[in-house]
Amino acid sequence: METRSIFPPLTGWEATRDALHGYARAVAFIPRAHAIAHPQWWHISLKVHPDGLVTDNMALPDGGIFCLKMDLHRHQVLLLTSRGDALEFSMLAGLSEAQFRDRLLEAVAGLGLEGVYALEKAGGREPATYDPAAAQKYFAALVNADRVFNLQRTRLGGERGPVQLWPHGFDLAFEWFGTRQVTLSEKGVSRSYPAQLNLGFSPGEASHPEPYFYSNPWPFEAEHLLDKPLPGGARWFTGSWQGSLLPYQELVGDDRAEQRLLDYAQAVFQASAPTLLAGDKP
Known about the structure:
Shape: globular
Low-confidence stretches: none
Number of helices: 5
Mean pLDDT: 94
Largest sheet: 8 strands, antiparallel
Radius of gyration: 20 Å
Number of strands: 14
Distance between the termini: 47 Å
């Protein structure tokens, strides 16, 4: 019987990954300036839809709304308005991140919008290399990660954030918030933050170049966590960040990939929750 997995191989696609990451950052300039601001910056994230990644809706100056969509079937970014406009920007043209961003900002200005854009966060001007087949494999992985994360998010209950893709790190994740409050002092001002646990999917970055799933409690209390076992292939990680890691490759070709990912997420939650809940700290 043929083994089928919801997670396809992601190999030899680094140039396409970097191009997609750059275009996602270019898209994020727009909601950063024009979406309704959220205190946890959720307004700059992208959400998974059946045909790609979509920004929040944003207001047009003369009424109506618009959004941006990274269409990963047609390999273009669309600027869509409630008036019926649909402007297309191909991701196959080899444009650098900065060139792509400039074209998007010009189109938004054409809608009558003015904004203060965080141009200090702009990327470089190196031409991008984009392979449509590699992009679609990544999108298949992203869609299924989003689906599994939403299953786990629903199972946890309590206060949770949405599953969202962060353009800066290019990772898909959601946060679960504990009842414990952690006080930090920043520039002489003390503020309290809820303890939290995330669950995410990274396509790879400097600290770990290969794709991986992660789940990181904050605060990370190594003395209560490092001796807790994690299911097959997963491990605690205390390198450039602190948390846990399940290599993506562990699930490629495995017809139990969904259950294994859920088992991993639940094991980290059960190990971490006592350190994140008020009054229940070990």
